[in-house]
Design the sequence.
């Protein structure tokens, strides 16, 4: 059998695995598996390994489902309590949570409760630093009780940051997308070591967005740079066609895709100024694109491929974006070369 070496010098690695390959992949990874998230419109069968799967109801371009699998270069220990399941080693921890909610207002309360639970957990344990958070919930653009679900979510999340004295400038990288059903689903990566927050010079920091985007600004950084191990890892937040704080090219998926990729490049360049040596698009980048309209899935994928060629990992999902005029959002993980 071929030598299994996804890690090279990566402290955490990420792979997108098809349903028919997932059991074999997890068996190979053994006690290095930190987190498994399934994306698809129908839930797949339970895994042979029994590893818990956090499920996000979003159609996947070109297949029924895909698994996002995070692995560590060191063995991890599984964790579970009434709030979350997770896995960690001495430096890094992945946590997975989900919670039902019934309305936009309830979503705010639920986000506050969940984030408070996360911060409690982080403060108690050996991973006080929140590096990256993924947020998914259905009907993200629905307006209920006079407020959009996304904005209401941002209010509850912001309140948790305030209550736990988390400075917005130290916010994790993040994304927030609309799934097609199910609960609020959150997973996160936390670390023993603080990350370095990266902002995009082309964009207003999200935590300084003006009130026109909601009563409380979203608490995320454009990227976080984690310096664990031999080579740093750059976690780039969901990135969209925004300049300053304005959506640009609302009518054109092609121009929105190009602007989004320009923003990602700007974040990588900024990280370079703060010590990151990018290993390059071919081996050093995993990318997850979210596209609002099914008919745009291929054009977004084609532009990404034309710009950056054969990426290490690329998955394209259909999901709603948190601003109604945004047609897509792209997140990325970049690995650095050892310095
Ligand atoms: C933006 O730049 C687009 O609320 O956690 C991107 C990444 C976006 C994260 C979040 C929202 C979030 O404002 C939307």
Sequence:
């Amino acid at each position: 059998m071929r030598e299994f070496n996804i890690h090279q010098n990566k402290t955490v690695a990420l792979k997108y695995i098809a349903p028919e390959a997932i059991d074999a992949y997890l068996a190979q990874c053994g006690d290095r598996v930190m987190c498994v998230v399934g994306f698809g419109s129908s839930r797949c069968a339970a895994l042979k390994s029994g590893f818990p799967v956090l499920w996000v109801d979003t159609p996947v371009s070109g297949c029924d489902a895909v698994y996002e699998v995070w692995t560590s270069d060191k063995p991890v220990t599984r964790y579970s309590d009434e709030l979350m399941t997770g896995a960690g080693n001495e430096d890094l921890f992945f946590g997975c949570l989900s919670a039902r909610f019934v309305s936009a207002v309830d979503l705010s309360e639920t986000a506050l409760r969940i984030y408070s639970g996360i911060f409690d957990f982080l403060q108690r344990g050996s991973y006080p630093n929140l590096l990256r958070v993924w947020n998914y919930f259905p009907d993200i653009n629905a307006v209920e009780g006079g407020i959009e679900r996304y904005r209401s979510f941002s209010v509850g999340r912001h309140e948790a940051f305030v209550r736990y004295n988390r400075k917005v400038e130290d916010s994790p990288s993040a994304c927030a997308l609309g799934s097609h059903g199910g609960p609020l689903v959150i997973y996160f990566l936390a670390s023993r070591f603080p990350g370095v927050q990266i902002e995009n010079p082309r964009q207003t920091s999200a935590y300084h967005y003006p009130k026109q985007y909601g009563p409380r600004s979203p608490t995320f950084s454009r990227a976080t740079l984690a310096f664990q191990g031999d080579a740093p890892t750059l976690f780039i937040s969901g990135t969209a066609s925004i300049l300053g704080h304005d959506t640009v090219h609302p009518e054109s998926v092609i121009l929105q895709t190009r602007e989004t990729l320009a923003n990602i490049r700007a974040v990588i360049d900024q990280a370079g100024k703060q010590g990151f040596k990018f290993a390059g698009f071919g081996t050093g980048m995993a990318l997850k694109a979210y596209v609002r309209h099914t008919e745009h899935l291929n054009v977004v994928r084609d532009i990404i491929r034309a710009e950056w060629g054969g990426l290490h990992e690329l998955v394209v999902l259909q999901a709603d974006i948190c601003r109604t005029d945004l047609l897509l959002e792209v997140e990325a993980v970049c690995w650095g070369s050892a310095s």
The longest helix spans residues 104-124. The domain at 2-335 is CATH 3.30.1330.40 (60s Ribosomal Protein L30; Chain: A;). Residues 135, 174-176, 206, 218, 220, 237-238, 240, 242, 322 surround 3-(2-carboxyethyl)benzoic acid (CB under 6 Å). Residues 27 and 49 are 7 Å apart (CA to CA).
